[in-house]
Amino acid sequence: MSKITSIDELIECFDEAEPSEQISVLKRIDIPTSEFENFATWKENGYTRNCLARNDDFEFILICWSIGARTPIHGHAGQDCWVYQVQGNVTEKRFSESDTGFDVVNEAVLTEGRITYMHDRMGYHSIENFTDKIAMTLHIYASPIDRCKVYNEEKSQFEIRELDYHSIKGKEVTLTGN
């Protein structure tokens, strides 16, 4: 199969694929970083969520990571989640919940071109840009996620968080929540 060389082609191929074929579509990604930069927004000391495509069946979000940015431990509302490392490196930590909090069950550095998969049945995860360079990751959800369980470290409990975008198809939007 041929490489996928544009975001539009990726979205079209993913949309046309049967669920069992979706990972093979993602493995064909060979999109230049410069194409993703057209959709990137940045904020100091954090990360941004930039929607590239969304319909009833899937959602593509480009997450742009400043140096040291980290997500809280979170779930995915029961949806399949693939992460494709576009630029830079991030660390993904996977956790299982225990009586004393969380146990790290896996830790991996995602390098450019690598794909990882996450689902709630595997536990929870957190992603961090531990490097001294910015990073971008493409998150593909089998169905859109409007809210998910996020662990609040100050309260030592999970909360349901409404999810927002910083931009939609390259146009910045006003955030309503997180």
Q: How does this structure look, described?
A:
- The termini are far apart.
- This protein has helices at 7-16, 22-26, 33-37; strands at 47-54, 59-65, 81-87, 90-98, 101-110, 115-118, 124-128, 135-141, 147-152, 157-162, 167-168, 171-172.
- The protein has 178 residues and is mainly beta.
- The strands form three sheets. A seven-stranded mixed β-sheet has the order 6-3-8-2-1-11-12, with no helix packed on it. Strands 5-4-7 form a three-stranded antiparallel β-sheet, with no helix packed on it.
> What is the percentage of strand-forming residues?
35-45%
Q: Choose one word for the global shape.
A: globular
Largest sheet composition? 7 strands, mixed
CATH architecture assignment name: Sandwich
Low-confidence stretches: none
Q: At the first level of CATH, what is the class?
A: Mainly Beta
List keywords for this structure.
Jelly Rolls; 178 residues; mainly beta; 12 strands; 3-stranded antiparallel β-sheet; single chain; 7-stranded mixed β-sheet; 11% helix
In short:
The protein has 178 residues and is mainly beta. It has helices at residues 7-16, 22-26, 33-37; strands at 47-54, 59-65, 81-87, 90-98, 101-110, 115-118, 124-128, 135-141, 147-152, 157-162, 167-168, 171-172. Helix content is 11%, strand content 41%.
